Amino acid sequence: MTYVLGKLLHIVIVAGAVLPGVGAVMVWAERRVSAFMQDRLGPNRVGPAGLLQPVADLLKFIFKEDVIPGHVNKTLYVLAPVMSLVPALVAFCVVPYARGMAIADVNVGILLVFAISSIAVYGISIGGWASNNKYSLLGGVRASAQMISYELALGLSVVPVFLIVGDLNMEAIVRWQKENGWLVFWLFPAWVIFLISSYAETNRLPFDLPEAETELVAGYHTEYSSMKFALFFLAEYIHMTTASALSVALFFGGYELPFVTLPQGVWGTVLSGLIFFAKMSFFLFLFIWVRWTLPRFRYDQLMKLGWKILLPASLAIIVLTAGGVALRETLK
Amino acid sequence: MIRETRVMLEHAGDPAQKTLAGYRKHGGYQALAKALREMKPEEVTEEVLKSGLRGRGGAGFPTGRKWKFVPKTNKKKYIAVNADESEPGTCKDRQIMENDPHQLIEGTLLAAYAIGAETCYIYVRGEYPHSIRALEDALDEARGAGLVGRDIMGSGFSCDIWVHPGAGAYICGEETALLTSLEGNRGYPRLRPPFPAVEGLWKSPTVVNNVETLSCVTHILRRGASWFSSLGCEGSTGTRLFCISGHVRNPGVYELECGKFTLRELLMELGGGTPSGRPIKGVLPGGSSMPVLTAAELDVRFDLDSIAKAGSSLGSGAIMVFDDSVSAVDVALNISQFYSHESCGQCTPCREGSDWVRLMLDAVRRREAGTKDVALLLDVLDRIEGNTICALAEAFCWPVRSFVKKFGAEFEAHLKERASA
Amino acid sequence: MKTRIVKRPQLSVGERIYFATVVKGLLLTIKHFFGVCRDLFDWKNKKTAITMQYPEERWDFKDNFRGAPALVMDQFGREKCVACQMCEFVCPPKAITIWPAEFATKDNNVEKFPDRFEIDMLRCIYCGFCEEACPEEAIFLVKEAELVHTDKKDFIHDKGKLYEMGGIREDRILKWQHK
Amino acid sequence: MSGTVNVTVDGKQVAVPGGLNLIEAARYAGKSVPHYCYHPRLSVAGNCRICLVEIQGQGKLQIACNTRVTEGMSYFTDNERVRKAREGIMELLLINHPLDCPICDQAGECKLQEYAVEHGSGITRYAFEKVRKPKNVSWGDKVVFDSERCILCTRCVRFLDEVAGTPEVGLDMRGEKCTLVVKGDGKLTSPYQMNVIDLCPVGALTSRDFRFKSRVWFMHFTDTVCTSCARGCNVTVGSRGDRVLRMVPRANPDVNHNWMCDHGRLHYAFVNDETRLTVPRVAGKGAPYAAAIARAKAILEGARGQGILAVASPFMTNEELFAMKELLDRLGVEDRFFLKPMGEGDDLLVHPEKCPNARGAALLGFAEAAAEWPSKEYGALLHFAPHEGADLPEEALKRAKRRILFSLKEREADVCFPLTTWIEKDGTVVSAGDRLQRLTKGITFEPTLVTERTVLDRLHASLDASHRPPDTAAQALARLAAALPAFAGVTWTRIGPLGMKLEATGAPA
C-alpha cells in the first residue's frame, strides 16, 4: 500500500509538477535565449528577469476563450491534445533522473520509451485530421510520416548501447557508464544519429515540418487555441525533456559524474538529481540553440536524410559495434 | 527756315473771329451756303475725298472714305465731333474751339449735309470749360442767324448741333467709347464690327470726326479740294496743327504743312532746340501713345507716311521732346501710370495688364527688378497688344516697348546701379 | 531576350555533409547570445545593437514622419483650416468628415471655417494625402503614433483634439491679416 | 442668316448654319473655344478676350463670340498663336484673382479653374500685391458678391438688363479697380436674380442659400423638373447624403431656356424637413405599411355602400393618378376631385398654377374642386394632400366618416400614409402647354418610405388579387398610354430628358 501510495505521489510530483515545471521554464528559456541570439532581450517585464512570464502565459491560456470551430470532429478534436501529452509524460517514467529515482525501474525501460513515444504521433495526426482543415491535415500526415521514418533511425541508434552494455534497464546502463566511461566516447556516431532523430521525433527545428508556420500556418494545431493548444505546446516541451533525459542517460553517464563518487543516502540522491538536471539542461539548451540557428528542412530533404543516410548509417554502426563486441568477447 | 502756313489758325489772334460777324468777314459760312445751294451731298463727300484729307485724331483714316461708309438708308444719321482732346501733350483742338469756333460749326454742318445727318453732337472734354463756353456762344449766335437748326439758310436742310461735355475719362476720346458715353452709358469702347458708320449712336449710322478734321472740311469746301491738296505733301495734304511741348525753347501750337522738312529741322528751327542746350534724347512725335523716336532717328521727313516708316506715328500731333537729363525709365513709367489710370476696365488684357506693366516699370525704377523682368515686361506687352477691343492697350504697349527696346542700355544700367549702390 | 547561363555551383562532399556549416552557425548564434549576456551586466557600455526597449526608449521621429493627422493654428493662434474639404475628398479611407460653416461677422478676411472636423483614426491609414492636398497648410501628420483608447468613440478625433495635437505652426500666408 | 455655309475650323471643313458665331460653329468641328463673357442667350460683350481665334487672312486675332461665319472662312482655334494669346489672357485674368478656391463655392465648376488647367501656363509671373476689392458683399438675401473674384464679364449685368428686365447691376470705377455695384440700396430685387449665380463663370456671385453647404464634387446631380408651378422648368437637383442642397436650371429651349425663378430654385426645404412623416400612422400610431394598407382596405370596403370621396393632388405624377384611377374604378367611386393651388404669375416663367400636374389630373378624369363641396355625406375619404397651397376645407374633411390621408406631415386621420416628394420618385407630369415631362428620382429620404404609386397598387392588389401592378414608372406610363387616348403613343424614352408635347390633347403650342 505504501508502495502504491509512494509511487502515486512520485508520479504526481513528476508528471504534475516537475515536467510541467520544466516545460514552463523551457517556454521562458526558449524566448529569452532566442531573443539573446537575435540581439533582443525577450520577455523581461513579468517578474524578475521575466521569470513569471510562463505564469502569465498560463493564465492567458486558461482564461482564453475555448474555441471549438464548427467544422471539426469534436470528439477527436478534444482528444488529440490529450493523446499528445499523455505519452510524453508516460515515456519519462523509466528515466532514472536521480539515483534510484526512476518511476518504473523496468528491465526493458528503453523499449518502453520507444513504444510509448511512438503513440504520441497519434495525438498530432488525429489533431490534424480532426481539425478538418487542409493545413492541419497536411501537418498531421507529415508528422506520421516523419515519425515512422525517424523512429527507425532512433531505435537503431540505441541498439549499439544495448550491445555494449548488454542490458535494457536504464539504471544498468547508467551504472555501466559509471564503470566504463560515457558511452558517447564509444558511440559518438550513434549519439549523433540519436540526437538528429530525437529532434525529428520531437518536431523541433530543423525538422518542425508538421507545424511549419510559413507553409502550413502552424500545421496540425492551426485550429487549436486556449488550453488545448497549451497541451500540444506542453507535450512538445516534455518530449524534448524526455529526449534530453534519454540522451543524458544513454550517452552521457546519467546522474553520475566521472571520477567522482557521490555520497550514499539522501544527499547523494539529491546531488545525482542535480547532476542529471544539469546535464539535461545542456541538451534542452541545445534544442533551443539549434532551433534558432538552423533553417527548416525541405520535406524531401527530411525523407532523404532519414532513409538514405541515418538508417544505413545506424545499421552500419550496429554491425560495427556488434563486430567490436564480438571481438571484445573473443579477446576476453 | 520753316514757316507756318496758317489756314485754320489764320485769324486765331483776332478776338472778333469768335463772333459770327467776325467770322463772316473772312468768308465764313460761304462754303456752307455754296454747298447747300449748289452741291449735292455726294459732291461734298467727293470734294473731301479728292482733297486727300485724313483724320486728325490720330489714326489718319481718309475722311471722305469714312463718310462713304455711311449706308444710304432712311435711318437717322448722326455726326459726333470728337472734341475730347485728352491725349497728353495735345492742345490743338481747343485753339480752334476757343479762337475760331464757327469754322468747326460750319465744317460740322457740311459733314452733316454730306451724310444726311440732322443731329450733331460735339463731345467736348470736360476739362475744357472755355471751349465749351466758346462753342455754346458761337452755336447760340449761329442758331440765332438760322445757320443751325431747322431749314438752314432756307435750303430745306435741317441740322442741329449740341455740345456735350465729357466727364473726364481719357477713353471717351476713343470714337466708340465716345458714342457710348453720348448715349449716357459708361464710356466703354464697343466691339467692331459693326463700325460706327454703320451702327453708331443708338444703332444709327454715325460719323465721328475730330475737331481739326471738320475745320479742314470748311476750308476744303471754301477754297476747293485742289487748293487743299496742293498744301503739304502726298499722303499728308493740307496743313496740320502740331503741339510742341517738353524741352524746347519755343513750345506751342504750330500750323504746318507736312513733308517740307525733317523732324530735327522742325525742333531745332521752330522749336529752337532745348532750353538748356543739352542734346535731345528722344521725341514722342504723336502724343504719349506713340513709339518714341531717338535722337538718331530725328532726320526723318516730317509727314504721316515717313514717320510711320520710321516706326512711329504723328498721332494727334503732339510732339513731346525731352533732353538727356530725363531718364527713359521715368518716362516709360509715367506713360504707363497714365494709361493704367485711364484703362476703362472693360476687357481683360488692358484692365489687368496696364496695371501690371505699371508695377513692373515701377519696380524697375525702384531698382527692385532684374534684367529678366525687363524680358518679362516685353512678353507681357506681347500678350496685351492687339488682343483688346480698342486701341488703348496699344497706346501704352507701343511707347513702353519702344522705350525698353530703344533705351535698353539705359534700363540695364539703371538696374545695375542697384548692385553698386 | 538574351539569356545568360550561370553554372550551378557544385558542392564538395564536405559541404554536402553540412557539419562544418552547422557548427559555424551554432557558433554565430551563441556568440550573440553571450554578447547580450555580457551587455546585460554592463548596460551602459553595451556593444550589441540590442533592440529598443520601447516604452522607456523611444524613437526621435524625423520631421517628415507620418503620424496622426492634426490641425494647426498660425503663430497668432488663429484657425488655418477654411473647411475647403479637399482632405475629405482626397482621403482614401474616407476617415475625414467636415461640417463647414460661415463666420457670422463679415469683416473677417476668412469667410469659412470648419464647424466640426472629425478624423476617424480607426479608418485613417496615415497616407498623408490630406497634408498634401491642404491648400491652407492647415493639416499635418504630426509625430504622434501612439493612439490607444479603450472606447471606440475616442478614436474619432474632433476639432478640439486635432488642434490640441497640432498646436501652432509658423505660417507665412497669414490670410487672416491680408488676403 | 439661313442656309448653310462652309467653314474650315483648324483645317477641318464643316458645313454650319449661317449666322452662327465662331464659337458655335467650332462645335460642329468638334472644337471647343473657351469663353467667359459669351453666353448664347445674352448679347455679345466681347470683353473677356479668351475666345480669340486666328482667322485666315486677318492680321489680328479676333474674338470668336463677335465674329459670324462667312462662306469659305477658315479659322484656327488651337494653333500656336492662339494658344499663346489664350495663355496670356489666362495669366492676366489670374494675376488679381484671389487664391480663394478653398473657400469658393464655385470651385469644381469654375470656368476659371477649368481654363487655367486647360489653357493656362500653370505658373504666375506676377510678383506684386493683388488688387484689393470688396469681398463678401451682400446683394440682398439671396446673392453674395465677391469683387476680387469677379472677372467683369458682365454676364450678370446683361442678364438682369436683357432677360429679367431689371437693370439693377452696373459697373463702378475703372481699370483694375473696376467692380460691380447694385444700383439703389445695393440689394437685388429681381425675382430671377439667382440666375446670375449660374451665369457667373467664376465664384464672384454665390448663393446665400447654398453657400458653403457642400463642395460640388461631393454632390449627386439629378436631371428633373421643378414642381413649384405648372411651368415645369427643367432643373438639375444637387444632393448629398440624400438631402437636396440646391436646384439649378437645366437648359431647355422650349420651356425655360437657361433660367428659372428664385422661388422655384429655393422651393425644396420641405423635402429636407426632418419632421416629415416616414412611416404610416394608423389611428395616430406608427404602423407598418402592411397593417396600414389592411386598415385602409377595411375602411374602403366598409364604406362601399355609403359612398367614397376621392381627392387627388396635382403634385401627383400621371402614373400615381392612373394607379388611383384604377383603384377608384375598381371601387366604383364617382366623386373624383383634385385641388389646384393658384397664385401670381408673370410674363417670363412663373405660372399662376402653383402645382406641376393639374393638367395631368384633369386628363386622368379628376375634376377641379369647386369652391362649394357637395353636401353629400360619405363613408370614406381618400385624400392626397397637396405639398402646399390649397388644402381640403375642414367641412369637406368632416363630411366623411373615415379618412385615409396621404400627407407630408402627420395629420389626424384613420390612416395617414406619408407622401414622397417629387425628387424621390420617377414619373411624368403635364406642364404648361400640355408638355409631358419626366421627373427623376434623385434621393431616398428614408429607406422605409414607399412611394404613393406602390401604396395604391398594393391597396388595389389587396382588394383584387388579379391586379398586377407595374414595377417601374416606365411600365406604369406604358399602361397609362394604352388606356388613355390623350397619352397615345407616349413612352418613357420618347419623352426624353427635355420632355415632349402631348399632341393628342389638341392644346395650342
Q: What's the level 1 CATH class of the domain at 281-505 in chain D?
A: Alpha Beta
**Poorly predicted regions of chain D:** none
Total E-strand runs of chain B: 11
Shape of chain D: elongated
Structure class of chain B: alpha/beta
Unreliable residue stretches of chain B:
none
What CATH calls the topology of the domain at 281-505 in chain D is Rossmann fold
Q: Which range does the strand content of chain B fall in?
A: 5-15%
What is the typical, i.e. mean, pLDDT of chain D? 90
Bin the strand percentage of chain D. Answer: 15-25%
- What is the number of strand segments of chain D? 24
Biggest β-sheet: strands ordered side by side in the sheet of chain B = 8-7-11-9-10
Biggest sheet character of chain D: 8 strands, mixed
Radius of gyration of chain D: 27 Å
- Helix % of chain B is 40-55%
Number of helices of chain B: 17
Q: Which term fits the overall shape of chain B?
A: globular
Oligomeric organization of the protein chains: heterotetramer
Helix content bin of chain D: 10-25%
Describe the protein's architecture and organization.
The complex is a heterotetramer of chains A (332), B (421), C (179) and D (509). With 332 residues, chain A is mainly α. Chain A has one domain. In chain A, helix 3 packs parallel to helix 10. The mean pLDDT of chain A is 84. In chain B, 44% of the residues lie in helices and 13% in strands. Chain B has 17 helices and eleven strands. Chain B has a five-stranded mixed β-sheet, with helices on one face. In chain B, strands 3-2-1-4 form a four-stranded parallel β-sheet, with helices on both faces. A two-stranded antiparallel sheet of chain B has the order 5-6. Chain C folds into two domains: 42 residues, no CATH class; 98 residues, Alpha-Beta Plaits, CATH 3.30.70.3270. Chain C contains five helices and five strands, in the order ααβαββαββα. In chain C, strands 2-3-5 form a three-stranded antiparallel β-sheet. A two-stranded antiparallel sheet of chain C has the order 1-4. The longest helix of chain C is centred in the first third of the chain and has 23 residues. Chain C is elongated and about 90 Å long. The two termini of chain D are 25 Å apart. In chain D, helix 8 crosses helix 12 and helix 9 runs parallel beside helix 12. By secondary structure, chain D is of the alpha/beta class. Among the domains of chain D are: 75 residues, Ubiquitin-like (UB roll), CATH 3.10.20.740; 225 residues, Rossmann fold, CATH 3.40.50.740. In chain D, strand 16, helix 9 and strand 17 form a beta-alpha-beta unit. The interface between B and D is medium-sized, with 32 and 37 residues.
